[in-house]
Write a structure and sequence with these properties.
The chain is of the alpha/beta class and 414 residues long. The protein has two domains: 5-248, 3-Layer(aba) Sandwich (Peroxisomal Thiolase, Chain A, domain 1), CATH 3.40.47; 261-411, Thiolase/Chalcone synthase (Peroxisomal Thiolase, Chain A, domain 1, 3-Layer(aba) Sandwich), CATH 3.40.47.10. It contains 13 helices and 14 strands. It has helices at residues 20-28, 64-67, 72-88, 111-124, 133-137, 141-150, 165-178, 196-204, 243-248, 277-290, 308-322, 336-339, 346-360, and strands at 5-13, 35-36, 49-50, 100-105, 156-157, 184-191, 234-242, 255-264, 299-301, 331-333, 362-363, 386-387, 392-399, 403-411. Helix 11 (308-322) links the parallel strand 9 and strand 10. The two termini are 21 Å apart. 58% of the residues are buried.
């Protein structure tokens, strides 16, 4: 029998809050974190809005001399990890350190540092490049810093699979524990790409919403008037533990992770496969891994980015994977309508929100769903959160390159 894996702590940071409690409260209230960008001068940019993390001070988590050695995505990761560790009550002693691993990724990494150091190169020559440039910017240093800070000597990995990054990180960490290569994994993702190149690059692809005059209404998944996604930043970190290990130390169990699916569209570098075929297969794979039927799933936290094509194709994929249940008893919602799209951090944030939905038996809404797209005809929990009986929930993440991941969680009952 496979080892069972539970969630004992989580840390969430995004545009609607800097702690899990704050994020959850504001998500349930339907509060948008999208606003005019403050981090740089947006003059001349087609898109001038984002879901920036507000009032975050890395000095609350990191020594002053170390802050400059890390990109912002690492700062956010350290903040989220600090909360997750404290929530779980995990004390990584020398006796268990080799059984505690880290699997934290990022889709892009330190864009802020890359842009800053490139400017230093152009303006001052190669001698002006910081010696901390590379370790501050590269993706695996979030996992590296967490490992060093907490003395986690087990498996240490960093996934970079675009917007599926942290879903893959959590799923792969789950499998590491299942196969007995670790007893605890600190898993998730972090992203801080609200920078000139980040926003300018996605805007050049015409992927972003340009509803600049009404930012809180800009992210509107499944709405007929959606015009693109809103970029966000933040981090989502989960503490995963083997069930008996968690029980022995009296850990607070929040939910059980029971399934993980992966798939590839093998279709296009940015567009989803026709009819949502890759999304369909990843959900079916997750159901198979969990050994449950489609009818047992009560809620899906969808990828739901607010793009014209993506929302329709995810809806089609859900209908195909869940059949009649998709229209009769299955609730789905996109919390990106409030948090924006955290890219590589999205799956970690949304997995955490899914766990909280199971814990509190409360479904987060899809806000700004004022004029539903006729092709998007599921129960998207429009505009207001909803109390509901939720036993099993699924979280979807899809990324550029056609990479997909689905996680399935079950409510924990003593």
């Amino acid at each position: 029998m496979s080892r069972r894996v539970v969630v004992t702590g989580l840390g969430l940071i995004c545009g609607v809050g800097n702690t899990s409690a704050e994020v959850w409260s504001n998500v349930l209230a339907g509060k948008s974190g999208v606003a005019t960008i403050t981090g740089f001068d947006t003059t001349g940019f087609a898109c001038t809005i984002a879901a920036e993390v507000k009032n975050f001070d890395p000095l609350n988590f990191i020594e002053k001399k170390e802050v400059k050695k890390m990109a912002r995505f690492i700062h956010l990761c350290m903040g989220a990890t600090d909360e997750a560790i404290r929530m779980s009550g995990l004390n990584i002693t020398p006796e268990i350190s080799e059984r505690v691993g880290v699997h934290i990724g990022s889709g892009i990494g330190g864009f802020d540092v890359i842009e800053r150091e490139h400017s230093n190169l152009i303006n001052g020559g190669p001698r002006k490049i910081s010696p901390f440039f590379i370790p501050a910017a590269i993706i695996n240093l979030a996992a590296g810093h967490v490992s060093i800070r907490y003395d986690a000597k087990g498996p240490n990995e960093a996934t970079a699979t675009a917007c599926t990054t942290s879903a893959h990180s959590i799923g792969d960490a789950y499998k590491i524990i299942q196969r007995c290569a670790a007893d605890v994994m600190i898993a998730g993702g972090s992203e801080a790409a609200v920078t000139p190149m980040g926003v300018g690059g996605f805007a050049a692809m015409r992927a972003l919403s340009t509803r600049n005059g009404d930012p809180e209404k800009a992210s509107r998944p499944f709405d007929k008037d959606r015009d693109g996604f809103v970029i966000g930043e933040g981090a989502g970190i989960l503490i995963l533990e083997e069930l008996e290990f968690a029980r022995r130390r009296g850990a607070p169990i929040m939910a059980e992770i029971i399934g993980y699916g992966m798939s590839a569209d093998a279709y296009h570098i940015t567009q989803p496969a026709e009819e949502g075929e890759g999304g369909y297969r990843v959900m079916v794979n997750a159901l198979k891994d969990a050994n449950i039927t489609a009818e047992q799933v009560d809620y899906i936290n969808v990828h739901g980015t607010s793009t014209p094509l993506g929302d329709v194709l995810e809806t089609k994929a859900i209908k195909r994977a869940f059949g009649e249940h998709a229209k009769n008893g299955l609730a789905v919602s996109s919390t990106k309508s409030m948090t924006g799209h955290l890219l590589g951090g999205a799956g970690g944030l949304e997995a955490g929100i899914t766990v909280l939905a199971l814990r509190d038996q409360n479904l987060p809404p899809t806000i700004n769903l004022d004029n539903p797209d006729p092709e998007c005809d599921l129960d998207y929990v429009p505009n207001r959160s909803r109390k509901a009986r939720v036993n099993i929930a699924l979280s979807n993440s899809f990324g550029f390159g056609g990479t997909n991941g689905s996680l399935i969680f079950r409510r924990w009952e003593q």
